[in-house]
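Lab notebook page, bench 4
Experiment: in silico fold of construct C2
Operator: M.H.
Input chain length: 340 residues
Purpose: comparison with the prior construct
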Amino acid sequence: QRLPNGNTFINWAVGNVLPIAQEITPDGRKAFEMSFANDDHCYRSFRFPWEGMSNTPYLVVEPYPDHVTFIFNKFGDGSVNYYKIYGDTLSPPLTVLDTSRATLKGLTNLVNGRRYYFRVTAVDTNGQESGFSNEKSVRVNFIEPGQNMIMNGDFSEDRNFWEWDVNGSASGSWIIEDSVSHFQITNGGTAVYNLQLRQGDLVLLQGTKYTFEFDAWADASRLIEVKVGQASDPWINYSRLGFSYVTTSPAHFRHTFEMQDPTDYSARVEVNVGNSDIDVYIDNVSLIMESETGITMNFPVDQYILYNNYPNPFNSSTNIRYFLPERSLVSITIINILGE
């Protein structure tokens, strides 16, 4: 559908693979995107002017390796003066983290490794605050190139950050022995995913290279599936890594891949050990982002951002990156642990 503003509206139809609707500018930039919440198919969609007004804002949260982006809007309300961003590690969030006159905001002052819950409200020109938006939850995982994206990959923190799932006809248990994951399998079921250890909330950026590594062995020779992939249907295997053959001798597996699919803000690592009754051992799971992403974001014009330095800790030198809303003079003060 050609729109009056010169853009093109596209309906991709297959909702579980592509967005159900996109608006594209003449030079190929994406101006609008919409998907059904439950991945339905839709073979006819159109875009029409809307003259209504939302009662509350709508919120989208996107976690990145060095910041969290908030996109929000109280659609159709011309009286909005600014927005309040609420966030906390408990639901529902009641603490105001920041305000914004624009409908896009990036935050870096969040505690790494914590799961946050977010909501926004709109404040009009009379100071009247709207009701809360929808609530969004993400785990903050600020990662610099070279750092492990997997939380507790060496299992030194016992079961923290990992989820164990037994399904189908399978039965078994997952225990930690001397910081090693041991899968005690009574019945492996009929599929490799009937016994699954996983960790989600991983951000994989399209076009970025990653190195995936782990140690594995078993009580006898067998196949296991360890991969990085999509957390929902159609379960894309982003790592393009097939089954791994393990023996009684501990072996180190290393695989490098490029994220070829669109950026996924909630990917996961899976260790699938079903379809066999042979016990399996896993340790030292890591996922490393190989290089700088080069991604740039257009933040509100009233905001500056100081990113985490890299490397940290460091010896003789480190890189300090920052974002300025406009060209200006900059003063950076560096203080050591003694306050000097």
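Observations: The longest strand covers residues 115-124. Confidence is low (pLDDT under 50) at residues 293-301.
Next step: discuss at group meeting.
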